[in-house]
Every structure is written in structure tokens, then in C-alpha cells.
């Protein structure tokens, strides 16, 4: 049986900052519809890999393919138009803007109102507001449209950030530590929501919370010192001797022991 072409493929990706080799020949395929968790110790190169995939960083060597097109070196806005939506580690909200203002900005930026598409029905102020309301409701943020971002709790902030990614068509979501800073109950609610929100999409997520990883991921990829140690089904990765050594027993006794490394933010 031939396997469908991957949605995203990395071929021999290297990156260095000055003399520091951060990515050292990463080969990875992400298939349509899967949730793939990228795990690894602090400084392993996970966020840098996201920077490469999302066009913020041109790799020193290697190739990135998205939906069969070679895209390494393509700018982020072009990749966004191809359906790649990247979330960042740590919050990037504007404290003095409301939830609705954030959403309107995200929608307008994508719909290209500057390119005079303003007459389109969905781009009217009413159309945008209705779309924003639907999105907020689906993410459990109904009624918070007028709240300033500064007043939101950690889980609400993360949901808003996800709403901003979903405010424009997104086939591939890159989420960098989406549950960082959440209390356990918030994390559990976020994870069950993410299962619904990611329906019909492909998700590549960096995550330190092993309960989230093993509860959500179809496959797990382990990055250490810029190299992939292991990629496969969660159970197989958990049993991998190299991975166990790199993680010094973090998989012992799961569930219960949750953090591979404490997140930095
Ligand atoms: N712009 C940069 N210039 C120089 N070095 C950088 C730059 N960005 C990242 N690095 C270095 O590259 C390495 C990998 O960083 P990266 O942020 O990708 O790791 P990470 O796996 O995401 O870590 P964490 O789990 O802490 O978020 C680190 O040693 C970091 O200091
Ligand atoms: Mg990181």
C-alpha cells in the first residue's frame, strides 16, 4: 500500500546561530490529520524548528516541503496563506486590546482588506463580528469579546491565541507549549477542547507536559541537541532506550509524573 504524501516534510534540516549548531539534520514527516507532539529538553531546538517551518528562519541547509511545495525560505505570510498557522511560546497578546479587537485584527490581516476586498460580505464589520462570536463560542470564550486581554486568565489567553490562529483558514497548526502556565484542571479542559478544535486539521505541538503528550498525540518525535532521537507511536517512543536515557526516567510511572523539563516561560 502506498502512503499518502506527507502534509509537511523536513529533509536534512540544519541550522546554526553563529558557531552554535542548533539543528543537525532533522528529517520529519507530518501527515494530514495527525497530532504529532515534539518533545525534548530545554534548548533542544524545538522552537527553532518551528521558526524554520513557519518561515521566520531560513535553514542553513536542508529542505522544507508543505503540501508538496518546497517552502524553505518562503516568508511567513506566504506560508500562512497556505494554511500554516503558528502559535508562539509565551503570550503575544496586546494587554490593552480587547478580545474582539484581537480577532478583528487577525481576520482583517488575513482577508487582505488593504487589497480592497472590503465589499465582500464576510469582511463587513457585521460579518467579522459574527465570525468572531462563533469562534469565541466554540472555544469557550463566549461573552468575553469586550474584555481586555490583560484581564484574561492563563487558559483564556491560550484559548484566545488559538482563536487568532483559527481566525483564518488553518490546515496545519504549530503550537509551542500551548498549556504552559495553566493549572492542571485548565490543562485538562484545554486538552479536551483541543481534540475538538483540531478536528479536520493537522497539529504539530511542542509540549512538556507528558500527560498532555500521551493523552493527545498520535505520534511523538523526540528532539535532543538538534537531532531527532525517535519518532513513532507514543508507546513505542516511551519504550525507546535512547529516549529513556535522554529523559532520565521521566516516563516512569505515567500518569502522575508530568513534566519532562520545567517550561521556561
Ligand atoms: N536567535 C538566536 N540566536 C542565537 N542562539 C539562539 C537563537 N535562538 C535560539 N538560540 C539557541 O538555540 C538553542 C535552541 O533554542 P530553542 O529555543 O530552539 O530550544 P527549545 O527546544 O525550544 O527550548 P525550550 O524547551 O526551552 O523552549 C538554544 O541553545 C538557544 O539558546
Ligand atoms: Mg522553545
Key features of this structure:
265 residues; alpha/beta; Rossmann fold; 2 domains; 4-stranded antiparallel beta sheet; 9 helices; 10 strands; 22% strand; disordered C terminus; binds adenosine-5'-triphosphate; binds magnesium ion
Describe this structure in words.
The protein has nine helices and ten strands. With 265 residues, it is α/β, with parallel strands linked by helices. It folds into two domains: 1-89 and 170-265, P-loop containing nucleotide triphosphate hydrolases (Rossmann fold, 3-Layer(aba) Sandwich); 94-151, no CATH class. The strands form two sheets. The chain has a six-stranded mixed beta sheet, with helices on both faces. Strands 2-1-4-5 form a four-stranded antiparallel beta sheet, covered by helices on one side. 38% of the residues are buried. It binds adenosine-5'-triphosphate and magnesium ion. Magnesium ion (MG) is lined by residues 46-47, 89, 176. Residues 17, 20, 22, 40, 42-48, 89, 264 line the site of adenosine-5'-triphosphate.
Bound molecules: adenosine-5'-triphosphate, magnesium ion
* Count of discrete alpha- or pi-helical segments spanning 4 or more residues: 9
Please mark out the parts with pLDDT under 50 across 5 or more consecutive residues, or reply none: 113-119, 253-265
- Proportion in helices: 25-40%
Largest sheet: 6 strands, mixed
Q: Domains counted in the coordinates: how many? A: 2
Give Rg in angstroms: 19 Å
CATH class categorisation of the largest domain: Alpha Beta
Provide the structure class: alpha/beta
Q: Residue-averaged pLDDT, rounded?
A: 87
Q: Which fold name is given in CATH as the topology of the largest domain? A: Rossmann fold
Q: Secondary-structure element order, as H and E?
A: EEEHEEHEHHHEHEHEEHH
CATH superfamily of the largest domain: P-loop containing nucleotide triphosphate hydrolases
Termini separation: 44 Å
| Strand order across the largest sheet | 6-7-8-3-9-10
Number of strands: 10
The CATH architecture of the largest domain can be given as 3-Layer(aba) Sandwich
Proportion of beta-strand residues: 15-25%
Amino acid at each position: 500500500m502506498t502512503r499518502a504524501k506527507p502534509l509537511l516534510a523536513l529533509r536534512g534540516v540544519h541550522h546554526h546561530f553563529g558557531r552554535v549548531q542548533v539543528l543537525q539534520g532533522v528529517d520529519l514527516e507530518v501527515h494530514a490529520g495527525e497530532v504529532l507532539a515534539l518533545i525534548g529538553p530545554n534548548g533542544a531546538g524545538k522552537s527553532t524548528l518551528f521558526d524554520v517551518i513557519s518561515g521566520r528562519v531560513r535553514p542553513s541547509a536542508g529542505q522544507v516541503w508543505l503540501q508538496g511545495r518546497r517552502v524553505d525560505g518562503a516568508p511567513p505570510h506566504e506560508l500562512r496563506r497556505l494554511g500554516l498557522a503558528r502559535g508562539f511560546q509565551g503570550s503575544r497578546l496586546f494587554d490593552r486590546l480587547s478580545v474582539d479587537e484581537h480577532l478583528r485584527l487577525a481576520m482583517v490581516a488575513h482577508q487582505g482588506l488593504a487589497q480592497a476586498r472590503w465589499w465582500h460580505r464576510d469582511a463587513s464589520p457585521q460579518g467579522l463580528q459574527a465570525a468572531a462570536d462563533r469562534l469565541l463560542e466554540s472555544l469557550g470564550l463566549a461573552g468575553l469579546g469586550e474584555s481586555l486581554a490583560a484581564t484574561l486568565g492563563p487558559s483564556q489567553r491560550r484559548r484566545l491565541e488559538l482563536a487568532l490562529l483559527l481566525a483564518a483558514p488553518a490546515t496545519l497548526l504549530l503550537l509551542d507549549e500551548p498549556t504552559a502556565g495553566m493549572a492542571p484542571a485548565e490543562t485538562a479542559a484545554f486538552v479536551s477542547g483541543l481534540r475538538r478544535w483540531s478536528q479536520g486539521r493537522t497539529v504539530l505541538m511542542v509540549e512538556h507536559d507528558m500527560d498532555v503528550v500521551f493523552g493527545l498525540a498520535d505520534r511523538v518525535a523526540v528532539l535532543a541537541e538538534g537531532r531527532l532521537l525517535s519518532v513513532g507511536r507514543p508507546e513505542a517512543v516511551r519504550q525507546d532506550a535512547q529516549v529513556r536515557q535522554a529523559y532520565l526516567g521521566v516516563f516512569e510511572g505515567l500518569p502522575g509524573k508530568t513534566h519532562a523539563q520545567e517550561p521556561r516561560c
